[in-house]
Amino acid sequence: MDHFLSEFEIQFRAGFLSDLEQTLAKVQHEKVYACAFGTDSDWVTLFMAVNTEESLSNHITNMKEQGLCDSEQDEIYYRWGCSEYQYGEDTHFNHISRLLYATEEVQEYKDEIIRIIAKVVNETANDVFARYGQAKADITFFVSLTDDDLAEEIENQSVRQMTVPSLASKFLKRYDGIK
Questions:
Q1: Do the beta carbons of residue 116 and residue 28 sit within 8 Å?
Q2: Beta 47-52 vs 140-145: how paired, if at all?
Q3: CA Rg, the chain, in Å?
């Protein structure tokens, strides 16, 4: 395995568990439905964002009051747009972003980066989630690009790798039927 990929896996594994537990502790009285790993089109940043059914409901209510949510499409955006997620502002994986930034042509590694993220998520024990009143099988995990038209393709590719099939298939149909 390439040195960069080995280092990425070591650093991601080390950062993910502590950031995940820190975030789950904040939301242990809510129902987590999504955990996204956001990056940009250059793949030089990485952050984790988590959302709960309760925070989504509150956010949609607030957006409706401001006139910023008036369609099913808007609600789907708020549900799946990781930049709208309410938890994770402390999980910017700065050490990993430095590694990504220092690597030439890092976007060429995107498939391997997604595979490593999925591997770490999949290897994370269910009891880590259970300690905070969550069920890993109830959470949709995916990678998203915050500034690129390829975001949907990356989200669809990654959700299949790290989310239980029943949730992944629902996620893949998230835009079906939108007028």
A1: no
A2: unpaired
A3: 16
Tell me which amino acid residue 52 is: T
Please tell me the pTM assigned to this model.
0.94
Angle, helices 110-123 vs 3-26, to 10°: value is 50
User: What would the two tokens of residue 170 be?
Assistant: 């629902």
CB within 8 Å of 169: residues ≥ 6 apart? none
State residue 41 phi and psi, 5-degree precision. Answer: -65, -20
Considering Cα of 12, then 89, then 159, then 163, what sign does the dihedral take?
A: positive
Please name the helix (run of DSSP H) or strand (run of DSSP E) that holds residue 63, with its range, or none.
Answer: helix 53-65
Angle at 120 between CA 118 and CA 126, to 5 degrees: 100
pLDDT at 15 over 60: yes
CA 53 to chain CA centroid, Å, is: 15
pLDDT tens digits, residue range 118-143? 999 999 999 999 999 999 999 999 99
Confidence at residue 74, expressed as pLDDT on a 0 to 100 scale:
92
pLDDT of 92: 64
Q: How many CB atoms sit inside 10 A of residue 160's CB? A: 15
Q: How far apart are CA 159 and CA 63, in angstroms?
A: 27
90 CB-contact burial (10 Å; exposed 0-12 / middle 13-18 / buried 19+): exposed
